[in-house]
Amino acid sequence: MGALSKSDIGGFLARQGILVAFVVFMIGFTIANDRFVDPDNILGVIRSSAILGVMALGVTFVVISGNLDLSVGSMMSFSTIVVLDLHDKIGPGLAIPVMFAMTLALGAFIGFLVGYLKLNSLIVTLGMLSAIHGLTLTYSGGKNMDIVDKEGTWFGVFGQGTALGVPIPILIFAILAAVLGMTLAKTPFGRKVYAVGGNGVAATFSGIRRARVVFFCYLMSAFCVATAGLIQASRSLGSQNTVGQGLELEVLAAVILGGASLMGGSGTIFKTVIGVLILGFIQNGLLLVGLQFYAQYVVTWIIIILAVWLDIAAKRGRLWSPIA
Amino acid sequence: MEPGTLSTFLKRGAIWAFIVIELIFFSIAGEFLSLSDKAFMDFDNMLLLFKQSAPIGIIAMGMTIIMVNGNIDLSVGATYALSGIILLDAMSWPIFGSLGDAVIPVAWLLALLTGVLLGALNGLIVWKTGVDAFIVTLGSMLGYRGLVFMYNGEQPTSHLNWTLVDFAEAQFLGIHTPTWFLLAVTLAIWFLMTRTVHGRNAYAIGDNRTAAVNAGIRVGPHMMINFMIIGFLAALSAVVFYSESGSVNPNDGELYELWVITAVVLGGTKLTGGAGSIVSTFGGVLAIQLLRKGLSHIGADTSTVNLVIGLILIAVLFLDRQLNLKGKEELRV
User: Fold this and answer.
1) Using alpha carbons only, what angle is made at residue B261 by residues B281 and A144, rounded to the nearest 5 degrees?
2) Which residue among A170, A272, A281, B207 is buried most deeply as judged by most CB within 10 Å?
């Protein structure tokens, strides 16, 4: 091993660009405002990122398998509204499994359309974004949902409780990330997801049932969405029926920031978690240095483009696109 | 009839057949379900239908070019809102205070310029960085929306100019001003796509980009021009709409990309690029507006409209695939 050459450093920056950017941002915010590294602040950021993060875990599977899921936002509204409504009707113990079953059914429907019928996932999930939104509005009759007896229920534990000093949403996020990360990295199913996303035809010829893998990726996504809906419902014990609107974009932004290629075949759960945390900390840091709330949209935009640009620039070995 | 003619005919005519079925269905269903005793196929109602199609329709024409190119633009809703804000805000800027009603063309120009610039920025990034248009415009959808909110916070931006409102509500030859704009844009883009070199290049690039590059087409600038066109049209749509309404909410235009893409896909444009027609997109726009109007005519609320539109989009995708599969043996997976 010789000394690091200039191209080694360039290559390292390009490959680990997202981590480098993360560290630079953290240092910058720390210098700008000493409240940023306060443990309470850090815990608060992770906690408020947990809902987005849980959804991003499932979408990571879908994206690695070479598809998209734009319906997670409205699906999250759906599960939140359903669980809140059923809570007062059949009790929390039954409401949660029923809500999971209903959300998984939606996921299975999308998985069937994209996996078995091989329809374009962008359009299918765009259609489902609208359809599920309509379903939620119909279900709730356009009204907000509220749990009547907010004091006398244990339902709030998923969003507000703590265990061993750690807020439950963070615990759920961490456990789910660990389990799904292992599934993706260490199991035959995980390898099949990469194979299908990397080269669908080759995967098919290797005897992998592409349709079934895609189907389970969407089920996985729906499961994560249901979990996120549970946390959301439990945190506020009441909700508007548009609570998840627009979240699909932030979720996708986090996954892309983490470096998963939209063409499929690359990305990891760990990187997605990093992507989620970057979004969360940047959002928080910008507020702390005194920028107005909406400036984070603009900053997120610039970061997404830069992250993806650096990623593909490293792969093709030159900064500017070869398009004439 | 040659083999394949039927399926081609079915595909070309499908959107118009769909419109006819919608008209018949809502006319009959309206007799039984409608709360008002006015017929659905009323002449005034149809005129209104065209007028209400204009904001989505004008953008859909630009989206057709973008999608024929094999790209997509998710930022049109935010571009629409930002152009609308510039339009209304510019009319109350002090430097234009002495202009009187001559401020109107100036404000229009500024709004359209905003749209072109935002589109050009998208196009430049797609061209120079080589990042997929989906990601670029997904990012700018957030970014441009952020600019909208930074401009005036969560407050609506309002300015009513009665000369402008009169113009926007006028009916020339019985047809509303927004409808004229929609028809003019449709005609112009149709001409661009079928009668010019630029249009032919758009199909060539979407069909096979490598071949297009080898044929000497400058793909980058071409795509950038298309993004400028859709930015211009999103701004034009805002100009037409907000001239009449006079007030922009910072959330305006959200989900417009969904409606526009639905209209374009209904019209048969391929997501993978290389195929699509302006006339069919026009049909897609009408079909969607007819559906919204028809459903509310028979007493359904907006939630049902969302549900139905989503499912129809998926159904069309399915049918389209079935028609295209004919005669082609596909890999069994």
Assistant:
1) 135
2) A272
Distance CA B146, CA A239 (A): 24
**What DSSP element (H or E) covers B305?**
helix B302-325
**Residue type at B179?**
T
What number of H helices and E strands is found in chain B?
A: 13, 4
Distance from CA of A187 to the nearest CA of B (A): 22
Terminal Cα-to-Cα distance of chain A (whole angstroms): 39
Counting one residue from chain A and one from chain B, the pairs whose CB atoms sit within 8 A come to 171
Q: What is the Cα–Cα distance from A300 to A285, expressed in whole angstroms?
A: 12
Domain A16-26+37-314 part of CATH 1.25.10: no
The beta-carbon neighbor of B331 closest among A133, A201, A294 is A201
Handedness of CA A114, A115, A116, A120 (dihedral sign): positive
**Longest Cα separation, chain B:** 71
Distance of CA B136 to the CA centre of its chain: 19
Structure tokens at A299: 């900053």
Kindly identify which residue of chain A lies nearest to residue B125, measuring between CA atoms.
A305
pLDDT digits (tens, 9 = 90+) for B91-119: 887 777 676 777 788 888 999 999 999 99
Q: Where are the beta strands (DSSP E) in chain A?
A: 145-146, 162-163, 166-167, 238-239
Burial of B328 (0-12, 13-18, 19+ CB in 10 A): exposed
Provide Rg for chain A, Cα atoms: 20
Q: How far is B331 from chain A (nearest CA, A)?
A: 8
- Calculate the average pLDDT of chain B: 82
Which residues sit opposite A167 in a β-bridge? A162
- What ipTM does the predicted assembly reach? 0.79
Backbone angles phi, psi at A206, to 5 degrees: -85, 5
Polymer length in residues for chain B: 333
Question: What chain A residue is nearest to B147 in terms of C-alpha separation?
Answer: A298
Q: Closest Cα partner for A57 from A274, A208, A264?
A: A274
What are the extents of the domains in chain B? 52-254
CA distance A204 to chain B (A): 6
| Token pair for A268 | 């990891």
Tens digit of each residue's pLDDT (9 = 90 or more) over A44-68: 888 889 999 999 999 999 999 999 8
Phi-psi region for residue A109, left (φ > 0), alpha (ψ -120 to 50) or beta?
alpha
* From B134, B139, B317, residue closest to A119, measured CB to CB: B317
Distances (CA, A) of B161 to A225, B106, B153: 47, 13, 23
Assess contact for B66 and B60: CB atoms under 8 A: no
Element (H, E) at A62: helix A39-64
